[in-house]
Amino acid sequence: MRVILAEDSALLRDGLRRMLTDEGYDVAAAVGDGAALLAAVSAAEPDLVVVDVRMPPTHTDEGIRAALEIRRRWPSVGVLVLSQYVEQKYAVDLLTGASARVGYLLKDRVADVGEFLEALARVGSGGTAFDPEVVRQLLRRTTHTDPLSRLTPREQDVLAEMAQGHNNPSIAARLHVSQSAVEKHVKAIFDKLDLADADGYSRRVLAVLRYLGS
């Protein structure tokens, strides 16, 4: 799988490049700003990009804006965003604009190499990978008038796992409940959010995230 890295910290950028190379990824480029990322994607046609939210010259939103541009111009390219903090507005913009091949992780998650590589593989293979803290903070944006307020605490737990990209068997294992219980919770979630007709794994995640961004 061909990957492009975009990270302004030379130390982290080199560390990621070495780690991915060791894991068998073809790192086509490792760049330090958004403009260089767009140029590299145009030249190398990667399968996946890993991009920091804040990059030069202003260190505000250059990386996430480049990620959104990649989603618009090259929709087949997977995008895994790394951020020091949860940038709620940009998380919603990114996650509600794509049905698959997208992820948003906090940088702390990179410290867990196995978890990071699992998320990377999931996005590269067409799935989704959302940091639990990102999902929690998006859930906290809701108010008593929001449809998400209809969910029970356990249904919110299941929703958070769904939004991270886990399927029903995985959710059952992570929450230590039966798969049939998860299936009932998922059905209740879609009923309460008026999304009962949303079928298909990536489509259900997209539908949930659109509600999170509403």
Q: Tell me, what is the CATH class of the largest domain?
A: Alpha Beta
Strand content: 5-15%
Question: How are the strands ordered across the major sheet?
Answer: 2-1-3-4-5-6
State the assembly state of the protein chains. Answer: single chain
- Uncertain runs with pLDDT below 50, 5 residues or more? 198-202
What is the architecture of the largest domain at the second tier of CATH? 3-Layer(aba) Sandwich
Q: What is the CATH superfamily classification of the largest domain?
A: Response regulator
Gyration radius over CA? 17 Å
Please tally the β strands and state the result: 6
Mean pLDDT: 82
- Element-by-element helix/strand order: EHEHEHEHEHEHHHHH
What does this structure look like?
With 214 residues, this protein is an alpha/beta fold. It folds into two domains: 130 residues, 3-Layer(aba) Sandwich (Rossmann fold), CATH 3.40.50; 71 residues, Arc Repressor Mutant, subunit A (Orthogonal Bundle), CATH 1.10.10. 51% of the residues lie in helices and 14% in strands. It contains ten helices and six strands. The longest helix has 14 residues. About 2% of the residues have low confidence.
